[in-house]
C-alpha cells in the first residue's frame, strides 16, 4: 500500500496534490476501552509503547491538518508512522 501511495504521489504532484500514508499505532478509542481491560492497557503502555501511552484521536487529526496545510506543501509520497515509537521496523 505504501508503494501505491508513493506512485500516486508522483502522478498527481504536478496538480498540487500531495499523498502521504499515516500508519497509526495504538489509538485510544471506544473499541479499545470496551475490549481491553485497564490493566492490560496500562501494561501494554508501559512495556510496548516507548512514549508510555496510547495515542489520542486528536494526535491523528493534528498530523492530518498539518499535512493538508500549506506548511506541508513539499511533503508527499512518504510514510509517517504515528505510533509513539511502537513500530520497530520501517514498515
What would you say this structure looks like, in words?
With 91 residues, this protein is mostly helical. The chain contains four helices and two strands, in the order αβαααβ. The chain is elongated and about 50 Å long. 1% of the residues are buried. The chain has a two-stranded parallel ribbon.
Record the strand order, biggest sheet. Answer: 1-2
Q: What structural class should be given to the helix and strand makeup?
A: mainly alpha
Poorly predicted segments? none
Task: Give the fraction of residues assigned to helices.
Answer: 40-55%
State the distance separating the first and last CA atoms: 10 Å
Strand content: under 5%
Total DSSP E strands: 2
Run of helices and strands:
HEHHHE
Radius of gyration: 16 Å
Shape descriptor reads elongated
Mean pLDDT: 93
Biggest sheet features: 2 strands, parallel
- How many separate helices? 4
Could you name the key traits of this structure?
two-stranded parallel sheet; 91 residues; mainly alpha; elongated
In short:
The protein is 44% helix and 4% strand.
Amino acid at each position: 500500500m505504501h508503494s501505491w501511495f508513493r506512485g500516486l504521489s508522483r502522478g498527481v504532484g504536478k496538480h498540487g496534490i500531495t499523498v502521504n500514508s499515516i500508519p497509526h499505532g495504538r489509538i485510544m478509542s471506544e473499541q479499545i476501552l470496551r475490549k481491553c481491560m485497564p490493566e492490560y492497557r496500562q501494561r501494554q503502555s508501559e512495556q510496548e509503547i516507548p512514549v508510555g501511552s496510547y495515542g489520542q484521536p486528536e494526535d491523528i487529526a493534528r498530523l492530518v491538518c498539518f499535512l493538508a496545510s500549506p506548511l506541508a506543501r513539499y511533503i508527499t509520497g512518504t510514510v509517517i508512522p504515528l505510533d509513539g515509537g511502537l513500530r520497530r521496523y520501517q514498515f
